[in-house]
Amino acid sequence: MSASTIPGNRSSHWYCHVTFDVTDHQVFMAYLRDQVGIEQLNGMTSYEFFVDHLERPTQAVLIECFPDDVAQQKHLENIRAELFLAGLSNPKISVLGTPPQTTRDRMLEHGYWPPAFEGEFQHLPHLGGFR
Fold it and tell me: In which band, very low, low, confident or very high, does the pLDDT at 85 lie, cut at 50, 70 and 90?
């Protein structure tokens, strides 16, 4: 059994899977156009949005991949939360992987980790695999 398949092995990266309802598609699309470039500069491995309808989305899924704590710190510094939240409601966050404690503490401070996060939340630790 290789180190990457041993149960409890920590991955060097993690994902956030966020679902939400789009309440204002114009605000949401304007935010998205700028934020993709910002996240690329932040150092994210990926920042992908999927929607139920390309012209007038009402539901969306965001999948973010963080390679390290620095990228996540820059992400929270540059998220422009007031603009992001202006076009959506009903967020549900799933954290896939095992972010460092500094990341979890920062997410808690910004309201994206329990008990601060008021929406639906789940954390699934990394079990094994390869990248």
Answer: confident
Q: Rounded to a whole number, what is the distance in angstroms from the first to the last CA of the chain? A: 16
Whole-number percent of the chain with pLDDT over 90:
81
CA distance 58 to 70: 32
Residues sharing a CB contact under 8 Å with residue 117, sequence separation 6 or more, in sequence order: 93, 107, 111
Q: Can you tell me the distance from the alpha carbon of 7 to that of 128, in angstroms, rounded to the nearest whole number?
A: 6
Angle between helices 69-77 and 101-109 (to 10 degrees): 10
pLDDT in tens, 6-38: 444 455 799 999 999 999 999 999 999 999 999
| CA-based torsion, 3, 127, 100, 96: positive or negative | positive
pTM, two decimals, is 0.86
Structure tokens at 90: 């009903």
> Residues near 37 by Cβ (< 8 Å), separated by ≥ 6?
none
Helices (H), ranges, the chain? 25-42, 69-77, 81-86, 101-109
